[in-house]
Amino acid sequence: MAAVIRNSTKRAPTAIAMMNMGGPSTLDEVQGFLTNLFTDPEIIPMGPVQNVVGPYVAKRRTPKIRDQYAAIGGGSPILKWTNIQGEAMCKLLDEMRPESAPHKHYVFFRYANPLTEVSLKQMKEDGVERAIAFSQYPQWSCTTSGSSMNHLWRELDRLKMTDNFKWSLIDRWNTHPGYVKAVANRVRQGLEQFAPEDRDKVIVMFSAHSVPMNVVNRGDSYTKEIASTTEHVMKELGLKNAHILSWQSKVGYLPWMGPSTSNVIKGFGEQGKKHVLAVPIAFTSDHIETLFEIDIEYAEEAHEVGITHFKRCPSLNDEPVLFQAMADIVKDHLDTNSLHSPQYPLNCPGCTNPMCRTIKNPISPYSKLL
């Protein structure tokens, strides 16, 4: 019956906009990706010189980053995994909620193809009226989810599509039971890489993408939400293992959230620790931070400091529990006619961006908390 619904219906699809950073699918896309990244003031603020300095920094960094993508196969797999996850989620949704079928996912990447503009035009061509902006960052940050959503509202204005779609948001899902269970499943699979007699002594090292301390001090909730996810996962696991939360991928010279993953590895090596499992906690699929930074750079650092058993658990990628969790999240969102999470209307105490916490053409009346 689900296949009949998906293929025979004439109704416009319910659009699920899967919003993420994206990544270059080929080496030729690396410079464009970096240029888009370094000219976004919401993730890497540079002040009034952003549009001049950003492209310069991107060009300077391109050779190094190209080499990194070459080392992992010539491009990021994030588009592949996003499509696999989206298709599986929508297939489940068509079975679980036929009244809003067909459901169709659209990839909304912030810095790589397919960009927001492309997917909005495809939604219009498909006759979409109802759309859900589903952040693929389970933990909210103004630098990631916020940047993607603010860009969506700007693009709707620029393309004169503000009235084309009625929007609601899934802006965070960091402690959803299905998501927590999916991560826990991957941690268990990661622990199976160690000898049975060693598993209880393995340190579970959750590694999240770091953020600048000025973002944290502004009141951004990301670090709190990451920490909450890790505690929920450890409770779900019910294991004896010690765990720690570390932070990776710092850019530039300003202070960022710590301890850095690199320093944690070095510290454990100096203490004589031998068994460490890296768990990428802020990512729903493999990309450069898992395949190069953890698998190559951090693995080499671990070897150099005497950590003889350094492993990474599999990323969520094609985890069936994740597919079900995403479908459950969307179904509950539609069933309850939700517009956003309770936290979304609350600006960070130090926010200076008037675009933050906007919703254009919402499904129900909306206002920021004043």
From TrEMBL:
SUPFAM superfamilies per UniProt: Chelatase
Superkingdom, taxonomy of origin: Eukaryota
GO molecular function (one): ferrochelatase activity
Cited Pfam families: Ferrochelatase (PF00762)
Key words, A-Z: Heme biosynthesis, Iron, Lyase, Membrane, Mitochondrion, Mitochondrion inner membrane, Porphyrin biosynthesis, Transit peptide
Metabolic or biological pathway: Porphyrin-containing compound metabolism; protoheme biosynthesis; protoheme from protoporphyrin-IX: step 1/1
Single GO cellular component term: mitochondrial inner membrane
Annotated catalysed reactions: heme b + 2 H(+) = protoporphyrin IX + Fe(2+)
Cellular compartments annotated: Mitochondrion inner membrane
EC number: 4.98.1.1
Top EC class of this enzyme: lyase
GO BP term (any one): heme biosynthetic process
Keyword Mitochondrion: yes
Membrane-topology annotation of the record: Peripheral membrane protein
Purpose: Catalyzes the ferrous insertion into protoporphyrin IX.
Protein family according to the UniProt entry: Belongs to the ferrochelatase family.
Protein name: Ferrochelatase
The species this protein was found in: Pythium oligandrum (Mycoparasitic fungus)
